[in-house]
Design brief:
This protein is of the alpha+beta class and about 650 residues long. It is built from 8 helices and 27 strands.
């Protein structure tokens, strides 16, 4: 009898899997807080449970064999209809045709819904097997109900085979994507403009006067569709195609710039519509001389680590995986070799050829960034790399750590420069000991013209850091020390101080941590103290007399699974002398925001940030910013909102 009960229970579970809908109406004698409430409601909605003539379920009463037989037959009928429905949907999709572009959305919705249903059939094989055993056990009772048991057994055997075929059958192409709508509005305060964390001036009218939120409004949008081959054998392919109005290099419509460059000194604008291919590649496994390796070719992406090779995240107020993943994309190839637990990647190609339809580079790989030290004839202007070749070796340090080594060759075709190549090399390591995490790295750059080193760029060209972290049950903490020398010019993403990204010629310490005050309330905070290393005319911003401080604090409250709030504050102070004669600056930003999950695939965020900037340390008249430079006074606000929908 124990086996019979187990089989019957399996059948009920199988029935619950078969029925996707959920109804709120239920048996009157089943409390809403009962653990089986939802399952019983689903079974009743689909007609698998009808209860007694008085409408009650009587859950405490043992079921008779005849009652179980009725339930078995109901489950069998529902399962049969379910599988036949899936097969009919597949036939319908196969006959839809792909000739009409208007059918794309309908086809995508059909494929997505069908894939969800097929994915939900993973456990059907066991459920059908249980139904077969139940049919044998309750054959007498089923016969008395007028059920053709032999035909039912035959149908169940056929069902098992059909379900297996359906699970193996899927569309040739998986379709996914996202749509983002972004709004930014700036306002002036005390007749001064607002300055954002990415050094953009907002709260201004087209004529240059102070403005409010309703007059300085920018709306940007972007939609992407990703096509991925679903074949389980042979080459794998994928492609992401994006329509946007977020791209622009300069001019009145300047959007976010591109995915790695930053536009400083001017506000946001609405560029013309544009289209670009984010990535489009094919991956396959092969081998040479007995050594297996994989190849990914086309428009591909790669990164190593923040201090060596990683695309900067220049969009402080916009969140999107394509913009924020840190991958440099280029037209070329990545070869991966596995040696036991070690992995060697060799990558190369042309990053300068990844343009949008309007001619904007998607994500440039630049050296000599304005915010890093200038180099000879660069004059502070970033130079785009045209060709690259790199190797990265990942070596496990037992099961608790990892070591990554990298060497990258970069070349430019830009004329009238003192250099045409750069080498970047270094190592990063991390190691976990219980709750303690140790990490650190060292890297260097050298700049040359053909085979000769340019100037003294083989000196003061290092960057290194060491970090110690601790993770507790309700809190975490870390301490870090780093040094980035004046001639270190790697295309990385190692942070922001005030409005300066990837700062050079600095050294200092940073501490931070997080504390869960309650299960829904988290506090995070950090502090950083840096000093300039040396005097050098190549670095107009930070010299030996420079002192920098940065403090950040944020309080986040997860009000419920769909709604969260946060309040943040950031303070930056710079003191010292630079070549422009400035001596101090203070940058304060205070923000309050919320995020609301409209569904599992849609999210709405809203944030308002207040700026208070004073001082003239970075007051460079050549910056071309209203008011003279980045160091003048700014006070205002910046409202941002983003709606993201994934499909």
């Amino acid at each position: 009898m124990k086996k019979t009960f187990r089989y019957a229970l399996s059948a009920v579970i199988g029935a619950a899997l078969v029925v996707p809908a959920f109804a709120q109406d239920n048996f009157p004698d089943v409390p809403a807080n009962h653990w089986a409430y939802e399952a019983l409601a689903r079974l009743k909605k689909d007609g698998l449970l009808v209860g007694y003539p008085d409408g009650l379920y009587r859950g405490g009463r043992p079921a008779s064999r005849y009652e179980l037989a009725v339930a078995i037959h109901a489950v069998y009928t529902a399962l049969l209809n379910r599988v036949e429905g899936l097969e009919n949907q597949l036939k319908g999709i196969n006959t839809n045709g792909l000739a009409s572009a208007d059918d794309l959305k309908n086809l995508r919705d059909q494929v997505a819904a069908l894939q969800d249903q097929v994915n939900g059939m993973k456990g059907y094989g066991d459920d059908i097997a249980n139904l077969k055993r139940l049919t044998d056990t309750f054959q007498k009772e089923l016969n008395s109900l007028g059920v053709d048991v032999e035909a039912m057994k035959k149908d169940l055997a056929d069902l098992s085979d059909r379900v297996g075929r359906l699970e193996r059958r899927k569309p040739a192409v998986d379709i996914s994507g996202d749509v983002n709508l972004w709004l930014g509005a700036g306002n002036s305060r005390d007749n001064l403009f607002d300055l954002t964390k990415d050094a953009r001036v907002v709260g201004s009218t087209a004529t240059g006067g102070p403005a409010g939120l309703t007059r300085d409004v920018t709306i940007l949008h972007e939609g992407a569709i990703t096509l991925t081959g679903t074949n389980e054998t042979g080459p794998k392919w994928h492609g992401t195609f994006v329509a946007t109005n977020m791209f622009a290099n300069s001019g009145p419509g300047n959007g976010f710039g591109n995915q790695s460059g930053i536009i400083s000194g001017v506000g946001y604008g609405e560029p013309d519509g544009d289209f670009y291919v984010q990535d489009l590649g094919i991956r396959f496994d092969t081998g040479v001389a007995g050594q297996a390796f994989n190849v990914e070719a086309g428009r591909v992406g790669y990164k190593v680590s923040p201090y060596i090779y990683q695309r900067p995240d220049t969009t402080e107020y916009f969140s999107n995986s394509r913009w924020d993943d840190g991958l440099y994309r280029f037209d070329g190839a990545i070869l991966g070799f596995n040696f036991g637990g070690a992995k060697l990647d060799i990558f190369g190609g042309k990053p300068s050829h990844t343009f949008s339809v309007n001619g904007t580079p998607i994500n440039t790989l630049d050296v000599g960034n304005t915010w890093i030290s200038s180099l000879n004839n660069l004059g502070g202007t970033p130079v785009s790399i045209d060709r690259q070749l790199g190797a990265a070796l990942n070596v496990p340090l037992t099961t608790a750590g990892n070591l990554k080594l990298a060497y990258i060759w970069l070349e430019t075709d830009t004329e009238d420069l003192a250099f045409n190549r750069m080498n970047v090399y270094g190592a990063d390591a991390d190691f976990n000991v219980g709750r303690i995490k140790l990490s650190g790295g060292w890297s260097a750059t050298t700049v040359g013209y053909n085979t000769s080193t340019v100037g003294n760029t083989d000196k003061d060209n290092n960057a290194w850091y060491a970090k110690l972290g601790w993770n507790g049950d309700r809190y975490g903490a870390y301490a870090e020390y780093r040094r980035v020398e004046d001639n270190y010019l790697a295309p990385g993403d190692w942070g922001r101080l005030a409005v300066v990204r990837n700062p050079g010629n600095i050294q200092g310490a940073k501490v931070g941590g997080n504390l869960d005050l309650t299960g829904a309330l988290r506090l995070t905070a950090s502090g950083e103290w840096d000093k300039g290393i040396k005097d050098n005319v190549n670095n107009p911003y930070f010299n030996s007399g420079t002192n920098l401080q940065q403090y950040m604090v944020n309080l986040g409250w997860q009000f419920n699974p769909n709604l969260s709030f946060n309040v943040g504050y950031e303070h930056n102070r710079i003191d010292g002398q630079n070549q422009f004669g400035g001596h101090w600056a203070r940058y304060d930003w205070t923000s309050v925001g919320l995020a609301y999950g409209l569904s599992s695939a849609a999210k709405l965020t809203l944030q308002y940030e207040i700026s208070d900037v004073s001082g003239n340390f970075l007051d460079n008249p050549a910056a071309g910013i209203a008011g003279g430079g980045l160091g003048t006074d700014y006070r205002g606000g910046f409202l941002t909102s983003q709606l993201s929908v994934k499909f």
